[in-house]
Specification:
Helix content is 68%, strand content 0%. The chain has 129 residues and is mostly helical. It has a single domain, classed as Four Helix Bundle (Hemerythrin (Met), subunit A) (Up-down Bundle), CATH 1.20.120.
C-alpha cells in the first residue's frame, strides 16, 4: 500500500520536537534549540527584501541562492511547508518560468511569516525569548 502525500494542513509550519528529541530533550537541549531558532529567525524579512531586489534586477541566480539558503536554515526547524514552497519557487526561477514567480514568491513569503510567528510563540512559551 502506498503512503498518501501529506496535505498542506498536515505538513508542519514549525516543529522543533524532533530536534529537541535528538539533542536529549533536556534543559541543555532546550537552550541549544532556542538559540538555533533565534539565529535562524534573526534576519526577519530581510531575505525577502534582498530576493525581491534580485528578482527585480533580473539577478535570478542571486534570488535562487537566497531562497536556497533560507530553505536550509529554516528547514531545520521542521518547516516542511516552507521547504516545499521554496523548492517550487527555486525551480520556477531556475527554469525561468517568470509567470509563476510572483505567485510562488507570495506563497513562500506567507509561509515564512507563519514560521516566524510560530517560532516566536514557541520561544515565548518556553521562556527563552
Amino acid at each position: 500500500m502506498s503512503e498518501a502525500s501529506p496535505t498542506k494542513t498536515e505538513e508542519s509550519v514549525f516543529s522543533v520536537a524532533t530536534l529537541l528529541k535528538y539533542m536529549g530533550n533536556d534543559d541543555k537541549a532546550l537552550a541549544i534549540v532556542s538559540k538555533i531558532v533565534r539565529d535562524a529567525c534573526a534576519p526577519g524579512m530581510e531575505p525577502f527584501t534582498l530576493a525581491r531586489a534580485a528578482l527585480d534586477e533580473q539577478r535570478l541566480d542571486d534570488a535562487g541562492k537566497i531562497f536556497h539558503s533560507l530553505r536550509g536554515s529554516i528547514g531545520t526547524l521542521g518547516a516542511k511547508r516552507l521547504v516545499a514552497a521554496s523548492l517550487k519557487l527555486e525551480q520556477a526561477i531556475a527554469e525561468r518560468q517568470d509567470g509563476q514567480v510572483p505567485e510562488l514568491f507570495t506563497a513562500l513569503e506567507s509561509e515564512y511569516r507563519l514560521v516566524l510567528q510560530q517560532a516566536d510563540a514557541w520561544l515565548t512559551s518556553n521562556g527563552t525569548t
